[in-house]
Design a protein that fits this description.
248 residues, mainly alpha, 0% strand, globular
Length: 248
Amino acid sequence: MLEAVSFGGLILIIISIMFVGMAKAGIAGAGTLTIPIVAAVLGGKASVGFLLPILLLSDIVAVVYYRKTVKWDVLLSILPWGFVGIGIGTVVGKLLNDVQFNVALATVILIGAGIMVWRDYISKSSQIPTSKLFAVFMGLFAGFTSMLGNASGPVIAIFLLSLHIPKQEFAGTRAWYFFIMNAVKFPLYVFVWKTISLTSLRDGALLIPALIVGMLIGFKLVKVIPEKLFRIIILVLIVVSAMGLLFK
C-alpha cells in the first residue's frame, strides 16, 4: 500500500498519524485532521481501513489508563444505538463508489467540524438537550459517522457533555466507547468492505513510532500553546482538507 505512495504523500501520512498521538495526549481536535489528510493520499474508503488498527491500538492504551473511571450506565445507554448506526454505515459505505465515498466522508468531516465549533463557541450559552430521543439520535449518528469515517469524536463529546459528568469519567467513558466501537468495526472492515489486509496492517505497524512521537509532542504542546489558538488552526486545516476531498 505505502510503497505506491509518493514521498510527499508518505510525509503527509506520517504527520497525520502524529496528529492521532497528539489527540491522545490531550490536543483536542487534532485527531480529526488525520482523516481528510490520509483520505486525500490513499482515497476515502482505503483510508478508513488503514487508520482503524492504529486508532484501535491507541484506544487500548486509553482504556488501560482509564479502566477505573468509565460510567458503564452511560456507555450502555448509547452503545446499542451506536451499533445500529454502524450497521447503517456499513450498508451505505458498501453501496458507494470511491468518488461518492470521498464526498460522503468530506460531508461527515465538515459536519464534525461544525459540531466542534458549536461545542466551543455556542453551547456554553445554550442548553444541550438531554432527552431520550436526543440520546438515540446521537447514538445513531455517532455509529454512522464512526463507520463511515472514524469521525464520531465531536458527536460523542457533545453527548457526554450533556450529562455533566466529571472530567475523569468523561475521558474514561469516551475512551471505552471508541474502543468497543472500533473493535466491532474491525471485522466489518476486513470481511465486508475489505479495506483492512495484511499489507495495510503491516504498513500501519511501521507508523507506530510516529504515533508515539505525536503523543510526546502533544504532551509538550499542551503546556506551551494555548488550546483555543491550536483548535482554531486545526479547524481551519480540517475544513481545507475536507474541501480538497470534495473536489478531488
